[in-house]
Amino acid sequence: MRLQGKVALITGSGSGIGKATSLLFAQHGAKICVADINLKGAEETASEIRAKGGEAICVEADVTNAEHIQRMIHETINKFQKIDILFNNAGMSSPLFPIEELDEAHWDKIMAVNVKSIFLACKYAVPIMKKQGGGVIINTGSIIAVRPRPRQSAYLASKAAVVNLTKGIALEVAPYRIRVNCINPVAAETPLLEKILRDSTSQEADYQKEKEKYIASVPIGRLATADDVAYAALYLASDESSMLTGACINVDGGRGV
Ligand SMILES: NC(=O)c1ccc[n+]([C@@H]2O[C@H](COP(=O)([O-])OP(=O)(O)OC[C@H]3O[C@@H](n4cnc5c(N)ncnc54)[C@H](O)[C@@H]3O)[C@@H](O)[C@H]2O)c1
């Protein structure tokens, strides 16, 4: 029980990495606010936690919307009286576009979901953590932030911003015993990865080929799982990492080296 008595607010927890992390944190004693734009997914995560004897609420929230962010924070406090851990994990990917075909509205959307969301959540959660005397913030970046690849300009720019934002906020709030760290996953077997690859290929054979090509670039020889990332988040959320702030952990099987 590495998070006994802690309260965690996890965005994008109706699916993939956020869901795996919610279940793992709950297994380690945390009470969870499951927040997602997809209420059905959020409800499923929360009921899985409850079925296993844990405590969870779920909130429908679009992380690009300041009012929704304030509501998800308010509902967490209302139910559990504090927020020890904020995991800014919600994010969206992009099909592969040459720069000249990248749509401006798509660029703005990616930046809003992947970056503005973290600004907003920190803006409203940090005052609460300061008042509590501390807290932990974890952001989900991507290995593409440190190893950029072609035709992913919007996604890689957004994730590079996540890394630097993590470091800047970490310096700012360290005196208040608030730690801010980031996880950079390599491609992980979640619906998001499937969407990137499927949107970028027209045929099943191409999809499999893209996947195999990617795996060949990972020294450990496989994609990540959502649990690989969840375990890194567990370490960052727990007091075991109390000397880490402004750090980015690459859960990447060596791809970023
Ligand atoms: N899967 C990968 O290959 C991979 C690799 C590197 C980084 N990441 C990052 O990991 C994070 C989680 O991705 P995942 O792979 O679990 O994907 P996923 O698609 O399984 O889950 C993402 C969740 O975020 C939610 N979401 C999307 N937009 C939202 C919004 N505006 N407001 C609230 N919730 C929203 C979705 O509804 C979904 O439940 C993302 O930030 C993603 O960029 C994923």
Could you please describe the fold and organization of this structure?
This protein has about 260 residues and is α/β, with parallel strands linked by helices. It has helices at about 15-25, 40-50, 65-80, 105-130, 155-175, 190-200, 205-215, 225-235, and strands spanning about 5-10, 30-35, 55-60, 85-90, 135-140, 180-185, 250. It has one domain (about 5-190, about 225-245): Rossmann fold. Strand 4, helix 4 and strand 5 (about 135-140) form a beta-alpha-beta unit. Helix 1 (about 15-25) crosses helix 8, helix 3 (about 65-80) packs parallel to helix 4 and helix 4 runs parallel beside helix 5 (about 155-175). The model has no long low-confidence stretch (mean pLDDT about 95). It binds nicotinamide-adenine-dinucleotide. Nicotinamide-adenine-dinucleotide binds next to helix 1 and helix 6.
What is the arithmetic mean of pLDDT? 96
Q: What is the helix fraction of residues, given as a range?
A: 40-55%
Instruction: Report the portion of residues in β strands.
Output: 5-15%
Q: Architecture, according to CATH?
A: 3-Layer(aba) Sandwich
Structural class, from secondary structure content? alpha/beta
N-end to C-end Cα span? 33 Å
Looking at CATH, which topology would you report? Answer: Rossmann fold
Topology as a string of helices (H) and strands (E): EHEHEHEHEHEHHHE
The coarse overall form would be globular
Number of helices: 8
Radius of gyration: 17 Å
Ranges where pLDDT stays below 50 over 5 or more residues in a row are: none
How many DSSP-defined strands? 7
CATH homologous superfamily title: NAD(P)-binding Rossmann-like Domain
- Sheet bearing the most strands, described? 7 strands, parallel
Strands of the biggest beta sheet: in what spatial order?
Answer: 3-2-1-4-5-6-7
Question: How many domains make up the 3D coordinates?
Answer: 1
CATH class: Alpha Beta
Bound molecules: nicotinamide-adenine-dinucleotide
